[in-house]
Structures are given as C-alpha cells and as structure tokens.
Amino acid sequence: MPKVYNWQLGRNMEYPHEAAFPKRQFAFVFNINRCIACQSCTMACKSTWTFSKGQEHMWWANVETKPYGGYPQFWDMKILKLLEEANPGGQVWSKKDGTFQFEGQTIFEAAKKKLTPESSRVLGYLPEDHEWNSPNIYEDNPKGPKGQPFQWDKEGVQLPVHKTWFFYLARICNHCTYPGCLAACPRNAIYKRPEDGIVLVDQSECRGYRKCIEACPYKKVMYRGNTRISEKCIACYPRVEGNDPESNGKPMETRCMAACIGQIRLQGLVKMNPDGTWAEDRYNPIYYLVHVAKVALPLYPQFGTAPNGYYIPPRWVPRPYLYQMFGPGVDEAIERYMNPDRELLAVLQLFRRSNLIIFSYKFEEGPKIFEGTLRGKPVTIYNDTVIAYGKEGEELFRTTVEEPVYERPAQHANSI
C-alpha cells in the first residue's frame, strides 16, 4: 500500500490510496465539559436528513453516554479489541524529541494480519442488526468500583478525577483525512470534496456492499434497506457552501452545530498543506484550539483515519480511559483548559455565538474584573473582547468574556 503522512500519529502509515488533500478541510471542536445530552443536535439532524422510510435507525448525529453507551452498541470496544488481537501489546505511544508518535498499527496496517477476505483493505467489522436498535442505550449510567455492578463509591468525589463518573460524547462523521469508508469501497463510490474535504457517497455508484460500514471504525456510514445503498452525514454541505437561504450567501454551520444549546460546538474550515498537515493559520479558532492552545484532541487517533473531529476532554474522568480515547496529549489539554490564559478564555466565548462559520478572530485586551484563587492557584480574569470574522474578512460579531447582565424592568420582574 502507498505511504501517507499522518501528523496525528507523528509518522508515515500505509493507506490503500495515494495521498490527496482539499484546499480547506471541514473540521470541528466539541467541548465535552459543556455537553448536557439534551439531544438537540441529534433531533436537528434527524428532522432534516433522516426522517424518511428506511432511515429509522439512521442517526448521523448522536450523543452517547460513556463508558457504556454507544451507537451502534459497543462500536469502540469492538474495534479496539480487533486492533489488540492483530497487534498484542503493541498499541502504544512513544515520545521522541518532545512529540508523540504512535508505534502501534492502524486499521489499515492491521488488516494484513487478520483473516479477512482478500477484498478487505481495512480492519473492521459489520455490526449486527440488534446493535442499531438503541441509540440511547446506557444513557446516564455511571462507572462505579471495578468488579461491583450497580454500585457507586461511598466516598465524596472531587477533581481532578471522580471515582464514580460518566460523560456525554457527541458524535457526527469525522470527515477523516484518510477515511476508512473510502479506502474500503470496491466501487470508488465514496470521495472527499476537493473544496472542503467533506466525505460523500455517490449513491448512483453505490451497490450496497456495506464494505464502508465494515471499515468505518466510528460506524458513521449506515445501510438503508429499502434502497439498498449506504448513506452518511453530509456535513450539511449546502450550508457550508453558503447556499442556505438563512445564510445570505455566507458559509454556515451545520444543523447539529447551530442547534446546540449547551454551546459545546465550534465548526470551521482549516487550510491544508500539500503533505496533509494544517497550514499555519494562527487566528483561525479551530487551528488555535488544536495547534496553539492544544486543548482539542482527535477521537481515537490510533485508528489512523486522521479524523477532523476534535474534543476538549472531560476533566473529571480517569486518565487511562481518556488516553485510550484521545491519545497521550490528555494531561496537557486538561491542564490548559482548567487554567486557561487570557486568549484561550476569550476564544472559548466564540462557541455557538453565531450560525456562520468563523474564519478568523481578533483578541483585544480589556479591564481586570476578578482576582482570587481557584484550586489553590491564583486566578485573574479580564473582560477581554474577541471579534469573529467571516470568509471575506467581514466582522460577524464581537463578544466579551464577561457576559452582559440585563435587569428586567420592575413591571415585568416576575414574568417569563
């Protein structure tokens, strides 16, 4: 197989196709610390794209409760088990010259070691029908003491790690740089758009072999029985193109992003280098969160698909679980998030302040508004301003760290 460079792994890896990259890549950051599992994103997507006959089990956007929940059920545990079986004890990270490198095998490299059909280019599995039946299975089920089902720790809990815990993981298609679905399709019916890297299925070419479903480690491609073809998240590309009537011709966030009342989501388009790395774009908020502040990490980077979905890890969860899910940068990401500098605190205010895609921002310092201690560390907060700009450099909005307070007039003091 050809060699391609995967910057999330810190090395070259094998991939069935030659490397090719879009001018800009659709990407997003989800802040797990804010997610309340209201399912507004889930239903926004469902009511827009998958409400028709044959799509009853299709949830392109979903929110699952970890560690037990998943859609399809146990999707991550199953692919992790397959990788471990293919490379026992070898799925590890090393640190060289201050950077992390994955020494294990990806789903593309491990495929050669498994007894799979010759047509299989990617290590994976095909979920059984019953695994698609319960998108909210184990919702709100916490993790207690090991080996004691239905029990919870009697002691109090405190940061940095809770003994009894769960968290919500919001998921859509990651529109990977090296998609497993694309690699596995025997008809080349799956492709990445050159303008924005969104991964789509050409339904006129699809014959429903379901190799894509087997190969996608995140299980975000789904089979529609009444049409016998596969479907998946399309990243609401008419909105990203600026063709939604609401956007007035400006690039717009997806339905799931715009519906998020927990303000956990930020979507953008990042510039790409010829080798697949991100071109330096210091004041693009997605670039800043991933490459400058380094608080946002890819979901299961060891799969090798180079997902373009990034997550700010939940700060109360035991670290070994988070290392497995987000890689070795977890400790540094959580530390920076819990003790943000002025610029990071300002950029975090950009989440869900507009339905339009933010291409760049400007940070302006403001007056001191608080000084004290938090968890034994000195804390100073300033009412800084962050200004968001669109594709053509036009100002979209500006907001401050301190949210404005509106006092209701006396004659309406108790009205809703």
Care to describe what's here?
The N and C termini lie far apart (63 Å). The longest helix is centred in the first third of the chain and has 12 residues. With 416 residues, the protein is α+β, with helices and mostly antiparallel strands. The model has no long low-confidence stretch (mean pLDDT 94). It folds into two domains: 237 residues, 2-Layer Sandwich (Alpha-Beta Plaits), CATH 3.30.70; 59 residues, no CATH class. It has ten helices and 19 strands.
Observed structural traits:
single chain; 416 residues; alpha+beta; Alpha-Beta Plaits; 2 domains; 10 helices
Number of discrete domains: 2
Oligomer: single chain
Strand-and-helix sequence, N→C?
EEEHEHEEEHEEHEEHHEHEEHHHEEEEE
In angstroms, what separates the terminal alpha carbons? 63 Å
Number of helices: 10
The strand order across the widest sheet is 12-3-14-13
State Rg.
Answer: 22 Å
For the record, the CATH class of the largest domain is Alpha Beta
How much helix, percentage-wise, in residues? 10-25%
Architecture of the largest domain, according to CATH? Answer: 2-Layer Sandwich
CATH topology of the largest domain: Alpha-Beta Plaits
Overall outline = globular
For the sheet with most strands, the description reads: 4 strands, mixed
Based on DSSP secondary structure assignment, what is the total number of beta strands?
Answer: 19
**Average predicted confidence as pLDDT:** 94
Low-confidence stretches: none
- Helix-and-strand structural type: alpha+beta
